[in-house]
Design a protein that fits this description.
α4 runs parallel beside α7, α8 runs antiparallel to α9 and α10 packs antiparallel against α13. The chain is mainly alpha-helical and 275 residues long. It folds into 2 domains: 54 residues; 215 residues, Orthogonal Bundle (MetI-like fold). The two termini are 29 Å apart. It has 13 helices and no strands.
Length: 275
Protein backbone atom coordinates (compact mmCIF):
# COMPACT_ATOMS: atom_id res chain seq x y z
CA UNK A 1 0.00 0.00 0.00
CA UNK A 2 1.44 3.34 -1.04
CA UNK A 3 1.92 5.89 1.69
CA UNK A 4 0.24 9.23 1.39
CA UNK A 5 2.67 12.09 1.02
CA UNK A 6 2.46 14.77 3.66
CA UNK A 7 1.73 18.11 2.08
CA UNK A 8 2.62 21.39 3.85
CA UNK A 9 -1.06 21.96 4.55
CA UNK A 10 -1.49 18.54 6.20
CA UNK A 11 1.70 19.04 8.24
CA UNK A 12 0.35 22.36 9.55
CA UNK A 13 -2.97 20.68 10.37
CA UNK A 14 -1.23 17.89 12.29
CA UNK A 15 0.92 20.42 14.14
CA UNK A 16 -2.12 22.46 15.16
CA UNK A 17 -3.95 19.31 16.29
CA UNK A 18 -0.93 18.22 18.35
CA UNK A 19 -0.61 21.63 20.00
CA UNK A 20 -4.34 21.73 20.77
CA UNK A 21 -4.14 18.25 22.30
CA UNK A 22 -1.19 19.20 24.50
CA UNK A 23 -2.86 22.42 25.64
CA UNK A 24 -6.05 20.59 26.55
CA UNK A 25 -4.24 17.81 28.42
CA UNK A 26 -1.72 20.00 30.26
CA UNK A 27 -4.13 21.23 33.02
CA UNK A 28 -5.12 17.65 33.80
CA UNK A 29 -1.47 16.58 33.81
CA UNK A 30 -0.54 19.43 36.15
CA UNK A 31 -3.39 18.54 38.50
CA UNK A 32 -2.06 14.99 38.61
CA UNK A 33 1.46 16.27 39.32
CA UNK A 34 0.26 18.45 42.21
CA UNK A 35 -1.81 15.60 43.64
CA UNK A 36 1.13 13.18 43.64
CA UNK A 37 3.77 15.47 45.13
CA UNK A 38 4.45 16.11 48.77
CA UNK A 39 3.40 19.58 49.98
CA UNK A 40 6.91 21.03 50.01
CA UNK A 41 7.47 20.11 46.35
CA UNK A 42 3.99 20.78 44.92
CA UNK A 43 4.67 24.45 44.12
CA UNK A 44 8.42 24.37 43.95
CA UNK A 45 9.94 26.74 41.38
CA UNK A 46 11.34 25.52 39.09
CA UNK A 47 9.30 22.32 39.45
CA UNK A 48 10.90 18.90 39.66
CA UNK A 49 9.95 17.01 36.52
CA UNK A 50 11.33 13.74 37.87
CA UNK A 51 9.98 12.69 41.26
CA UNK A 52 8.63 9.71 43.13
CA UNK A 53 4.82 9.98 42.99
CA UNK A 54 2.89 9.81 46.24
CA UNK A 55 -0.67 8.48 45.81
CA UNK A 56 -1.65 8.78 49.47
CA UNK A 57 -3.94 11.75 48.74
CA UNK A 58 -6.08 9.58 46.45
CA UNK A 59 -6.67 7.23 49.37
CA UNK A 60 -7.19 10.07 51.82
CA UNK A 61 -9.94 11.85 49.86
CA UNK A 62 -12.18 8.77 50.05
CA UNK A 63 -11.85 8.89 53.82
CA UNK A 64 -12.89 12.54 53.86
CA UNK A 65 -16.43 12.94 55.12
CA UNK A 66 -18.93 13.17 52.33
CA UNK A 67 -16.72 12.71 49.25
CA UNK A 68 -17.82 9.14 48.51
CA UNK A 69 -21.46 10.09 49.07
CA UNK A 70 -21.07 13.06 46.71
CA UNK A 71 -19.58 10.77 44.08
CA UNK A 72 -22.56 8.42 44.32
CA UNK A 73 -24.97 11.38 44.22
CA UNK A 74 -23.40 12.62 40.98
CA UNK A 75 -23.76 9.19 39.38
CA UNK A 76 -27.42 8.95 40.42
CA UNK A 77 -28.19 12.48 39.23
CA UNK A 78 -26.61 11.86 35.83
CA UNK A 79 -28.28 8.47 35.28
CA UNK A 80 -31.74 9.63 36.35
CA UNK A 81 -31.40 13.03 34.70
CA UNK A 82 -30.37 11.63 31.33
CA UNK A 83 -33.14 9.02 31.44
CA UNK A 84 -35.82 11.63 32.18
CA UNK A 85 -34.48 14.01 29.53
CA UNK A 86 -34.52 11.34 26.82
CA UNK A 87 -37.96 10.02 27.75
CA UNK A 88 -39.47 13.51 27.56
CA UNK A 89 -37.41 14.93 24.69
CA UNK A 90 -37.69 12.04 22.23
CA UNK A 91 -41.51 12.16 21.72
CA UNK A 92 -41.37 15.96 21.63
CA UNK A 93 -38.67 15.89 18.95
CA UNK A 94 -40.63 13.27 17.02
CA UNK A 95 -43.72 15.50 17.04
CA UNK A 96 -41.69 18.39 15.62
CA UNK A 97 -40.37 16.18 12.84
CA UNK A 98 -43.54 14.26 11.91
CA UNK A 99 -46.25 16.88 12.28
CA UNK A 100 -46.73 20.41 11.07
CA UNK A 101 -46.40 22.40 14.27
CA UNK A 102 -47.55 25.99 14.02
CA UNK A 103 -44.66 28.22 14.95
CA UNK A 104 -42.25 25.28 14.88
CA UNK A 105 -39.40 27.51 13.70
CA UNK A 106 -39.85 29.84 16.65
CA UNK A 107 -40.24 26.90 19.01
CA UNK A 108 -36.86 25.54 17.89
CA UNK A 109 -35.33 28.96 18.48
CA UNK A 110 -36.87 29.04 21.94
CA UNK A 111 -35.32 25.65 22.71
CA UNK A 112 -31.88 27.00 21.90
CA UNK A 113 -32.45 30.17 23.94
CA UNK A 114 -33.75 28.13 26.89
CA UNK A 115 -30.58 26.03 26.86
CA UNK A 116 -28.31 29.08 26.75
CA UNK A 117 -30.10 30.92 29.58
CA UNK A 118 -27.68 31.46 32.52
CA UNK A 119 -28.22 28.83 35.18
CA UNK A 120 -28.07 31.24 38.12
CA UNK A 121 -31.39 32.79 37.00
CA UNK A 122 -33.18 29.62 38.16
CA UNK A 123 -31.47 29.36 41.51
CA UNK A 124 -33.44 31.87 43.63
CA UNK A 125 -36.99 30.88 42.58
CA UNK A 126 -36.14 27.16 42.71
CA UNK A 127 -34.54 27.58 46.15
CA UNK A 128 -37.76 29.05 47.54
CA UNK A 129 -39.93 26.35 45.93
CA UNK A 130 -37.64 23.53 47.00
CA UNK A 131 -37.67 24.70 50.61
CA UNK A 132 -41.49 24.65 50.56
CA UNK A 133 -41.86 21.24 48.90
CA UNK A 134 -39.03 19.44 50.67
CA UNK A 135 -36.88 19.00 47.55
CA UNK A 136 -33.92 21.03 48.80
CA UNK A 137 -30.74 18.96 49.14
CA UNK A 138 -32.22 15.91 47.39
CA UNK A 139 -31.15 13.95 44.33
CA UNK A 140 -34.68 14.14 42.91
CA UNK A 141 -34.61 17.91 43.27
CA UNK A 142 -31.41 18.17 41.25
CA UNK A 143 -32.75 15.82 38.59
CA UNK A 144 -35.88 17.96 38.20
CA UNK A 145 -34.12 21.31 37.97
CA UNK A 146 -31.53 19.98 35.52
CA UNK A 147 -34.35 19.27 33.08
CA UNK A 148 -34.74 23.02 32.62
CA UNK A 149 -31.71 23.03 30.35
CA UNK A 150 -31.37 19.31 29.57
CA UNK A 151 -34.75 18.84 27.85
CA UNK A 152 -34.47 21.85 25.48
CA UNK A 153 -30.95 20.79 24.53
CA UNK A 154 -32.02 17.17 24.01
CA UNK A 155 -35.08 18.11 21.93
CA UNK A 156 -32.98 20.46 19.81
CA UNK A 157 -30.47 17.69 19.05
CA UNK A 158 -32.85 14.75 18.70
CA UNK A 159 -35.19 16.49 16.27
CA UNK A 160 -32.22 17.12 14.01
CA UNK A 161 -31.29 13.42 14.12
CA UNK A 162 -34.85 12.21 13.58
CA UNK A 163 -35.22 14.65 10.72
CA UNK A 164 -32.47 12.79 8.85
CA UNK A 165 -34.55 9.61 8.76
CA UNK A 166 -36.37 9.41 5.38
CA UNK A 167 -39.97 10.43 5.91
CA UNK A 168 -41.09 7.73 3.47
CA UNK A 169 -40.15 5.05 6.00
CA UNK A 170 -42.53 6.51 8.55
CA UNK A 171 -45.27 6.87 5.97
CA UNK A 172 -44.82 3.22 4.95
CA UNK A 173 -45.15 2.10 8.56
CA UNK A 174 -48.35 4.11 8.92
CA UNK A 175 -49.75 2.52 5.76
CA UNK A 176 -49.00 -0.92 7.23
CA UNK A 177 -51.13 -0.04 10.25
CA UNK A 178 -48.47 1.07 12.74
CA UNK A 179 -49.40 3.72 15.28
CA UNK A 180 -47.25 6.81 15.76
CA UNK A 181 -45.72 5.27 18.88
CA UNK A 182 -44.87 2.08 17.00
CA UNK A 183 -43.42 4.12 14.15
CA UNK A 184 -41.24 6.00 16.59
CA UNK A 185 -40.05 2.89 18.43
CA UNK A 186 -39.61 0.54 15.46
CA UNK A 187 -38.56 2.86 12.63
CA UNK A 188 -37.11 6.14 13.86
CA UNK A 189 -35.31 5.16 17.04
CA UNK A 190 -33.28 2.25 15.60
CA UNK A 191 -32.09 4.41 12.71
CA UNK A 192 -31.34 7.43 14.91
CA UNK A 193 -29.75 5.39 17.73
CA UNK A 194 -26.25 6.93 17.26
CA UNK A 195 -27.78 10.39 17.55
CA UNK A 196 -29.65 9.43 20.72
CA UNK A 197 -26.44 8.03 22.19
CA UNK A 198 -24.56 11.23 21.36
CA UNK A 199 -27.35 13.28 22.95
CA UNK A 200 -27.28 11.16 26.12
CA UNK A 201 -23.52 11.58 26.38
CA UNK A 202 -23.56 15.35 25.91
CA UNK A 203 -26.44 15.82 28.36
CA UNK A 204 -24.73 13.57 30.91
CA UNK A 205 -21.44 15.45 30.66
CA UNK A 206 -23.24 18.76 31.20
CA UNK A 207 -24.98 17.42 34.30
CA UNK A 208 -21.80 15.90 35.71
CA UNK A 209 -19.85 19.15 35.34
CA UNK A 210 -22.59 21.51 36.54
CA UNK A 211 -21.68 23.47 39.69
CA UNK A 212 -23.83 26.59 40.10
CA UNK A 213 -27.19 24.87 40.67
CA UNK A 214 -25.72 22.01 42.70
CA UNK A 215 -23.90 24.47 44.97
CA UNK A 216 -27.09 26.49 45.56
CA UNK A 217 -29.67 23.72 45.94
CA UNK A 218 -27.70 21.16 47.96
CA UNK A 219 -25.98 21.26 51.32
CA UNK A 220 -24.91 17.86 52.59
CA UNK A 221 -27.18 14.96 51.62
CA UNK A 222 -27.20 15.39 47.83
CA UNK A 223 -24.17 17.53 47.01
CA UNK A 224 -22.36 16.47 43.86
CA UNK A 225 -18.73 15.58 43.38
CA UNK A 226 -17.95 18.97 41.83
CA UNK A 227 -19.18 20.68 44.99
CA UNK A 228 -17.24 18.20 47.11
CA UNK A 229 -14.03 19.13 45.27
CA UNK A 230 -14.52 22.76 46.29
CA UNK A 231 -15.02 21.57 49.86
CA UNK A 232 -11.28 21.02 50.27
CA UNK A 233 -10.91 24.79 50.43
CA UNK A 234 -10.95 25.63 54.12
CA UNK A 235 -11.36 28.89 55.98
CA UNK A 236 -7.68 29.27 56.82
CA UNK A 237 -5.97 27.20 54.13
CA UNK A 238 -6.52 25.29 50.92
CA UNK A 239 -5.58 21.63 50.85
CA UNK A 240 -4.14 21.76 47.36
CA UNK A 241 -3.02 18.14 47.13
CA UNK A 242 -6.39 16.77 48.24
CA UNK A 243 -8.26 19.20 45.98
CA UNK A 244 -6.12 18.22 42.99
CA UNK A 245 -6.59 14.51 43.71
CA UNK A 246 -10.35 15.00 44.04
CA UNK A 247 -10.46 16.98 40.79
CA UNK A 248 -8.59 14.26 38.90
CA UNK A 249 -10.88 11.62 40.41
CA UNK A 250 -13.92 13.63 39.31
CA UNK A 251 -12.64 13.92 35.75
CA UNK A 252 -11.66 10.27 35.29
CA UNK A 253 -15.23 8.88 34.81
CA UNK A 254 -15.92 11.38 32.03
CA UNK A 255 -12.64 10.53 30.30
CA UNK A 256 -13.34 6.79 30.50
CA UNK A 257 -16.94 7.28 29.42
CA UNK A 258 -15.97 9.48 26.48
CA UNK A 259 -13.29 7.00 25.43
CA UNK A 260 -15.77 4.14 25.41
CA UNK A 261 -18.52 6.12 23.72
CA UNK A 262 -16.45 8.21 21.30
CA UNK A 263 -17.58 6.20 18.29
CA UNK A 264 -21.20 6.89 19.18
CA UNK A 265 -20.42 10.60 19.55
CA UNK A 266 -18.79 10.73 16.11
CA UNK A 267 -21.51 8.65 14.46
CA UNK A 268 -24.22 10.69 16.12
CA UNK A 269 -22.80 14.11 15.29
CA UNK A 270 -22.18 13.06 11.66
CA UNK A 271 -25.50 11.22 11.32
CA UNK A 272 -27.08 12.09 8.00
CA UNK A 273 -24.06 14.07 6.80
CA UNK A 274 -23.52 11.64 3.92
CA UNK A 275 -26.53 10.43 1.95
Amino acid sequence: MRRRRLTPASMVAYAIAAIATLLSLFPLYWLFVISTKVPRDAFKSPPDLLYVPDFSKYVQIWKTAGFADAYISSILVVLLGVAVALVVATPAAYALVRFRVRGGKWFRLWLLLAYTTPEFLFVIPMYVLYQQFGLYDTVIGLVIVYQVFAIPFAVWLIQAFLGEVPRELGDSARVDGATELQTLLRVYLPLAAPGLAATAILVGVNMWNEVTIALSLTFDQARTVQVAVAGFRGYAAIRWQEMAAAAVTAVVPMIVFAGIAQRYIVRGLTFGAVK
